[in-house]
Amino acid sequence: MQIEEQNWFYSPTVKEHFFKPKHAWVKDKSPTGYDAYGFYGSMKCGDKMEMWIKVKKDKIVDLKWKTFGCASAIASTSMLATKIKKKSGMDIKKDLQITPMDIIKRLGGLPSIKIHCSVMGDKALQSAIYDYKVKNKREDLKVEKPEEEKH
Ligand code: FES
Fold first, then answer.
1. Residues with CB under 6 A from ligand 1
2. According to the model, what pLDDT value does residue 75 have?
3. What's the pLDDT tens digit per position in 42-81?
4. CA distance 114 to 80
5. Which of 116, 122, 148 to probe ligand 1 with, by most ligand atoms within 8 A of CB?
6. pTM of the entire predicted model
7. Nearest 5°: phi and psi at 109?
């Protein structure tokens, strides 16, 4: 049976990022040359997200991510990665500046049962910045290790 257009409840932007995810890492072996690594697992669905970041002068200048998650997780993280890479990168000294709600809006919405998937990239990013903080003894950074979902 084919998926009919009317049964497809994702926006065109979600579809675009799902079919052509940006800055995704799709190899088995982890990428090298990155400064920090983050991980987040969703107990709600059993999926997970990994992220690698490269930091220069306190800005994220490059990142890669890999997930064993669904279309919503892939599209949300692809959008997040696109936003971070735009301009000259995201400043790690400030609070996380791109919220899951921003991402959902930019994607043209997500089905309500898929909202938890949209935070996986955000949490993996938080985890990667926390890893950078610990590795570099940067107590000045406000970021904390993300809490696991309680479901
Ligand atoms: Fe697990 Fe979406 S259902 S990431």
1. 42, 45, 47, 69-70, 72-73, 114, 117, 120
2. 97
3. 888 889 999 999 999 999 999 999 999 999 999 999 999 9
4. 16
5. 116
6. 0.90
7. 95, 160
Domain locations in the chain as residue ranges = 9-135
Cα(149)–Cα(4) distance, rounded to whole angstroms?
34
From CA 107, how far away is CA 93, in angstroms rounded? 26
Q: Which of 47, 49, 68, 118 to mutate to test the pocket of ligand 1 (most atoms within 8 A of CB)?
A: 47
Is 117 catalytic? The answer is: yes
Looking at CATH, the fold of the domain delimited by 9-135 is given as Sufe protein. Chain: A (3.90.1010)
Per-residue pLDDT reduced to its tens digit, 97-126 = 788 899 999 999 998 888 889 999 999 999
Among the atoms of ligand 1, which is closest to the Cα of residue 72?
2
